[in-house]
Amino acid sequence: MSFVALLYLVELIDVVLPAELDGYGIVARSPSGLDGIAWAPLLHGGWGHLVANTVPVLVFAFLAMAGGLGRWVAVTLTIWLVAGIGVWLTAPPATVTLGASGLAFGWLAFLLVRGVFTRSIAQLALAVVLFALWGGMLWGVLPGTPGVSWQGHLFGALGGVLAAWLVARGDRPERRPGPGTLEA
After folding, report:
1. SS3 category, 138
2. 94: left (phi over 0), alpha (psi -120 to 50) or beta
3. Which of 53, 32, 28 has its CA nearest to residue 41?
4. CA 152, 86, 27, 138: dihedral to nearest 10 degrees?
5. What are the tens digits of pLDDT across the range 33-71?
6. What span, in angstroms and rounded, lies between the C-alpha atoms of 164 and 118?
7. Residues 112-167: tens digit of each pLDDT
8. pTM, full prediction
9. In whole angstroms, what separates CA 129 from the centre of its chain?
10. 97: helix, coil or strand?
């Protein structure tokens, strides 16, 4: 997938050039750290961090893209912004947060709940399978592992729920009043 290739290219550039790109992550509650919302999901704290995010990002992004590229972009931007703003507001002061795991949690949450909002049996069935395979990952929204941004995971997941709700609202046919119906 092109997005994962981009993540690897950015990490390669960070390693090869003396660019220190990791400093461009989200710096909590710092006005200059707001720029990090745009860059943080593209940056990783080394190859191990990127490799750990690769499979979830590949699987969840691919499944989320089943609704079409335009919808995937809208869902991804929603998750990206909610996760970034949430991290900026709640992470410990002066910390730098980066990585695509907020997106992975967001796409997973999107895939788990969209069937509820759309009332789709197929999407609910997919959610059951995903929960059985990946549900344990959801513990990552809770504080616990030092050096891991549970805030990014939590707000990514909340962004995924919001995106699922927005997608479902957009898919609903507009109800038109029938004969004899009064509109206010």
Report:
1. helix
2. left
3. 53
4. -10
5. 899 999 999 999 999 999 999 999 999 999 999 989 999
6. 8
7. 999 999 999 999 999 999 999 999 899 889 898 888 899 999 999 999 999 999 99
8. 0.89
9. 19
10. strand
